[in-house]
Design brief:
The complex is a heterodimer of chains A (about 280) and B (about 325). Chain A has about 280 residues and is an alpha/beta fold. Chain A contains 6 helices and 16 strands. In chain B, α5 (about 175-185) crosses α6, α6 packs parallel to α7 and α7 packs across α9. Classes of the chains: A alpha/beta (about 280), B alpha/beta (about 325).
Chain lengths: ~280, ~325
């Protein structure tokens, strides 16, 4: 059940001129959060911004094994993200959660591939911790504009996550989109007969919708299960406003809109109808 | 002694004057795990047509200064699924259910009223004749005095449930629509629905909403809504359910003093889904401080002596 916490800012780390990681003292929410779930956040008390904004929970913070808070990975784009970028220790941020449908990790695949684009990295820190604890071989395919925009690479590597990187300017990893190395590995997996021999790869993706669409097409072509986390303009996070809808399949040709706050933000990749 | 918060809307007695506004609270059941629905004066559920509706494509909302524009397009499950899938839980949770109904034709309003009058657990009907976001029906009744009169009369004839037309502010003189509703036999009127507005992304020169235009709600519209409630109070004797940007107990009181018997809270619920107990506590506290025994004693108690002359009467 979600709770609303007036969370104190524990720390705020600027990763680049646009990205920051803000730590919030919301242990009640953090302790109840599963990978892929989100919180609705509002800095300040006034009417600017008026509405909360959705954020994936990035990390669960622990001190001596005790949960003390959570972090959010934020990219400065609008009013809320600017305020989160500017926040200092001791500021208060309203934080409502945990909300939404989590990634399924109940029946772990022997191998998990997480595909992240930009700020879409956010749900994969908590997901990789759960997957690694289940002894799934875990890979992060992580794409961004440039090497400067890749964050927490060591965090993942130190925990035993294999990293495959791509940058649009070619400054590190493959030059171009992250789907380039993803497709290469899918192809070599099939060529290597892994699929025939029971190779069991589950794909998880989060990032810009064109990337999600491309990953969905690859997953379908190579017949891999896929879960994606979508981000839609969201008013309330609780199913009240019907603004965050996304079209999902309904019969062979039709679609209908479902609320991504309740039915998602994590969806079966094959369910979504792309424009 | 604890003040009496109950109010009367036609034959319907509400335990308190604070109602969740239609379109801002889903079908109520979405909130049942975090809000005790029986503590609310009422739950006005999302507008229902006879049939299911897909609504508009995204983007459906955009934030604006101290407010938001929406053009959801009345996505909904239709009246039959509502009765089957949502009403039983609302009944179990002891919610006072106000069903907001929308039709493309007068006959559809009548059919909806008949169907819901036979359903167990409906306390009142709110007639949505004011949604600014859909082309067919609704607003075409709400923007014509004759249309308002006709749809209210027709529904009145087929139901004993309290009938509450929800009025649009997108007219020159909202009070005349309250009067037409009263003459047609409405038990109350609710106002205001949203103000038609739009927002443009100047980089792409595209509208920010897929529907191009949408309805403005939130604190930005509150002063206009309060003024309209005040105008209607002077025009009709039936109760007024006031709404428009209420986000605190002070805002609730402003509407009551202007002339509302009850209020609805919409956009503020998106910001704070736990707002209800805060509003009720604030209301109780005010009544105690001002030694008002019944909240209904506040309705229309605005003191305009010495300022009356400044009021430009219609």
């Amino acid at each position: 059940m979600p709770v609303d916490v007036e969370a104190r800012v524990i720390s705020n780390t600027r990763l680049s001129p646009d990205y920051n990681v803000i730590a919030l003292a919301a242990p009640e929410i953090a302790a109840a959060t599963s990978p892929g779930q989100f919180v609705m956040v509002k800095p300040g008390r006034g009417s600017t911004p008026l509405l909360r904004r959705p954020f994936s929970v990035f990390e669960i913070l622990r001190t001596n094994g005790r949960v003390v808070g959570l972090t959010l990975l934020s990219k400065r784009i609008g009013t809320t993200t600017q305020m989160l970028f500017d926040a200092v220790e001791g500021d208060v941020v309203s934080c409502l959660g945990p909300l939404g449908r989590a990634f399924s990790t109940g029946h772990p695949a022997t191998e998990a591939w997480m595909v992240a684009g930009g700020v879409g990295l956010a749900p994969f820190a908590t997901l990789s911790e759960v997957l690694l604890a289940q002894n799934a071989r875990t890979t992060l395919f992580y794409g961004a504009r440039s090497a400067r925009d890749l964050f927490y690479v060591d965090w993942f590597r130190d925990r035993g996550v294999r990293l495959v990187l791509a940058t649009e300017d070619g400054s590190v990893g493959d030059g171009g989109r992250i789907t380039i190395p993803l497709e290469r590995e899918l192809r070599s997996m099939v060529d290597g007969g892994l699929q025939a021999s029971g190779g069991d790869v589950m794909i998880y993706a989060c990032g810009p919708e064109p990337m999600l669409e491309a990953v969905a097409h690859l997953a379908s072509r190579y017949d891999r299960p896929l879960e994606i986390s979508v981000e839609r303009v969201m008013g309330c996070g609780l199913g009240g406003c019907y603004s965050c809808v996304i079209p999902v399949r309904n019969g062979p040709k039709g679609h209908h809109y479902v609320r991504s706050c309740l039915a998602g933000p994590v969806f079966d990749g094959a369910e979504i109808v792309w424009d | 002694m604890s003040p009496d918060l109950s109010v009367q809307i036609g034959s319907l007695k509400l335990t308190n004057p604070i109602i969740a506004a239609s379109g801002c609270f889903g079908y109520g059941v979405e909130y049942a795990d975090i809000v005790d629905l029986s503590l609310l004066g009422g739950v006005a559920v999302k507008g229902l047509f006879l049939a299911e509706r897909e609504g508009h494509p995204p983007e459906r909302i955009v934030e604006t200064p101290a407010g938001m524009l929406n053009a959801i397009g009345l996505q909904g499950i239709g009246v039959h699924r509502f009765i089957r899938e949502k009403l039983p839980e609302l009944r179990d949770r002891r919610a006072t259910v106000i069903v907001n109904i929308c039709g493309s034709t007068l006959e559809e309003y009548v059919d909806l009223a008949r169907i819901l009058s036979d359903a167990d657990g409906v306390a009142a009907l709110e007639l949505n004749i004011s949604c600014p976001n859909i082309k067919e029906g609704g607003i075409t009744f709400g923007c014509s005095l004759a249309g308002t009169f006709d749809v209210v009369s027709a529904v009145r004839k087929v139901t004993r449930l309290p009938v509450i037309p929800k009025l649009t502010p997108n007219v020159t003189d909202v009070a005349s629509f309250a009067r037409a509703s009263e003459e047609a036999g409405a038990d109350a009127v609710s106002l205001v629905n949203t103000f038609l507005g739009m927002a443009i992304d100047v980089e792409s020169r595209r509208p920010k909403l897929s529907n191009i235009v949408g309805g403005l709600s939130g604190p930005a519209i509150r002063p206009i809504a309060v003024r309209m409630v005040y105008e209607c109070r002077r025009a009709v004797k039936i109760p007024i359910v006031g709404m428009g940007g209420i986000a605190s107990a002070t805002d609730v009181l402003e509407f009551l003093i202007a002339g509302a018997t009850a209020v609805q809270v919409g956009t503020a619920n998106f910001v704070d889904p736990f707002i209800w107990t805060k509003l009720l506590d604030g209301l109780r506290d005010y009544l105690q401080r001002h030694a008002v025994a019944h909240v209904s004693d506040l309705t229309g108690t605005i003191d305009t002596t010495a300022r009356e002359k400044e009021w430009i009467s219609s």
